Amino acid sequence: MIAFDRVTRRYGDFTAVDDVSLTIESGEILVLIGASGSGKSTLLQLINRLQDPTEGTVQVDDEDVAGIAPEQLRRRMGYVIQGGGLFPHWTVARNIGTVPRLLGWDRARIAARVLELLDLLRLDAGRLHDAYPHMLSGGQQQRVGVARALAANPSILLMDEPFGALDPVTRAELQGEIRRIHAETGCTVVFVTHDMDEALSLATRVAVIDRGRVIQLGTPLDLLTRPASDQVARFVGTADRGLKLLGFQRVADRLRPSDRPDDTARHDPISQDLPLSAALSAMVMRGCDRLEVIDAQGTPIGTIHLADLVRLA
Amino acid sequence: MTAFGALLALLLLTTFGLGHAAPFFAWLFPGLDQPIYRQDGFPALLLGHLEIVAAASAFAILLGVFAGIAVTRPGGREFRGLLETVGATGQAFPPVAVLALAVPAMGFGASPAIVALALYGLLPVLQNTIAGLENTPADIRVAAAGMGMSTTQILLQIELPLAAPVILTGIRLSVVVGIGTAAIASTVGARTLGLPIIVGLNASNVAYVLQGALLVALLAITLDQGFEALIRATTRWRRAR
Fold first, then answer.
1. Which of A34, A41, A283, B201 has the greatest number of CB atoms lying within 10 Å of its CB?
2. A87 in contact with chain B, both atoms CB, cutoff 8 A
3. How many cross-chain Cβ pairs, A to B, lie less than 8 Å apart?
4. What average pLDDT does chain A have?
C-alpha cells in the first residue's frame, strides 16, 4: 500500500503537487493521468524519493519513505521511464541485471533471472541477450526497460509514461504485456500517462491530476459514467464517451434469451466474453441489429440486440 | 598489425638506429663535420622527453579530470566559471613565457618544464571532462538513480564510461601538444628530444634539427594513434551490429 498524506511539493513559487492525499491499494493498477505539467510525474517520483515532499508524508507499507535511504528504497521498486532509459554502453543482459547486481546477488542467480525475464517479456534470448540497446527496436527497448524494472521481484512497479514514444500497435502490445505481468506477479503498479485510452484500458483506478491536485479518483467506469466535473468529462472525451463505455461491459452483461434463432443464425455468432463495443462494431459491419451469442464452448446461449446496447447501464 | 603497433616499431627502430645512420646524413648534408648528434644518445633523449611529458600530463590529467568531475557535481557547480578561467589562462600563456618565469623560481632543468607543460595541458582535459560528463542524457541519469544507484555508482558505472571517449580526446590533445611543446623545454636545460634541435639551430647544423624533429614528430604521431586505439576500445559498443 502506498499512502500520500497531505503531500505538497513546491519548486520555488511553483507548486507541482498541491496537498494530495491518496491511497494506492496493494495489487491494483493505479493510473495517474493529466496534461503535461500537471504534476503527475512528480507525484510518481515522490514514491521512490526521486523527489521529496515539501510538506506531508508518503508511506509505503505503513513506513514513511523519508526514513528509508533513497538507494535502498529504489532497489525495492521497479522503475520504468519513457524510451526505457537503458544504459547504452551495456548489453541487454547487463541492463536487466542492474538491480540484482546492486543488491549483491551472485552471478549465477543473476544470469538465471535475466533469462527468466527475457522469456517473460518475450524477448529472443539467443539474439538479444548480448545486443546493445541501439540495436533494438523501440518496442524491444521498452520491453527490456520493463524487464530491468522487474528484475529483483519488486512489489511495486512505477511507470512514468513508459509507452509514450511507441507507435499505437506496439503500445497496445505492451499494454497487454503489463496486464499479463500484473496478473502473474500481483504487484502494485503506478502508471503515469496522458493518454486516456491507455488509462481506461489498464487501470484498476484512475486518478485525474490537474495543477497538482487529484480532481477525480475512481474506476474507469466511474470516470465514464460519473465524471466529477466538465474538465474530467472533457479529458475522458465528450464525443466518444459512449463508445468507450461500451468497451467496459461484456456481451454477457446485456444478453437476452434467444428469440428468433432463424433470424440471427444467418450471421456469425459473437462470443459472450467480448466487450459490447465489439458487438456494436459487428452489427455496423454486418448491417444487422441483433447477433447470436455463444459461450466459450461455442454453444448458443442467447441474443444481443442493438436496443440492449444503447440502454445505459 | 595496428597503426599504433607499426608506428611504435618505427619509433623504436628510428630511436636506436639513428646513431648508425651517419653515412646517410653525411650524404644528405655533405657540408657538415658532424652529421649525427652525439652529445646524448637518442634513446636517453626519448626517455627524458617522455619523463617530462608523463609527469606534466599526469598532473594535467589528474587535476583536469578531478576538477571536471567536481564542478559537474551539485556542490561544485558554482566553481565552474572560475576553474574554466584558470584553465584558459593556463593555456593562453605561451609555454615559453611560463618557462622564462619558472626558471628564476625553480632553477634550470626539468621542473620548470613540467610546470609549464602541465599548465598548458590542463585546459583540454578539463573542458572535455566537463563536456563529456554533461553529455550524459538526463533520462539515463534519472533511470540510473531510479534503479537505486548511488551518485558514486552513477559516476563510475554510467557517466564516466559514457564520457570516456570525449575525456580521452581531451587527454590525447593535451599529451600530443605536450610532446611538441616539451621540445622547447631544452632551452631551460631539460634533456629532451628538443636538445638536438636547439643545438642544431645554434650551430647551424640542419642534420641535428632534422633528427630531433623526426623523433618528436614520430613520438607524437605514435601516441596519437595509441589514443585513437584506446578511444575506439571505449566506443566498441557503439559499432556493435
1. A34
2. yes
3. 66
4. 90
Digit-coded pLDDT (tens) for B100-159: 888 888 888 888 889 888 988 999 999 999 999 999 999 999 999 999 999 999 999 999
Q: Please, which residues 123-142 of chain B have a Cβ atom closer than 8 Å to chain A?
A: 139-140, 142
Residues of B in contact with A158 (CB under 8 A): 146
| Alpha carbon of A72: minimum distance to chain B alpha carbons (Å) | 7
Interface pTM, i.e. ipTM: 0.85
Is B34 near chain A, with CB under 8 Å? no
Q: What is the mean pLDDT of each run of 10 residues along chain A (313 residues)?
A: 95 94 96 93 96 96 95 95 93 97 96 95 94 95 96 95 90 92 94 92 94 94 88 81 81 79 66 86 85 85 85 65
Q: What is the distance in angstroms between the Cα of A99 and the nearest Cα belonging to chain B?
A: 6
Give the cell for residue A170: 506496439
For A4-20, what is each residue's pLDDT tens digit? 999 999 999 999 999 99
The verdict on pTM exceeding 0.80 is yes
Check if A48 contacts B (Cβ < 8 Å).
Answer: yes
Residue of chain B whose alpha carbon sits nearest to that of A70:
B148
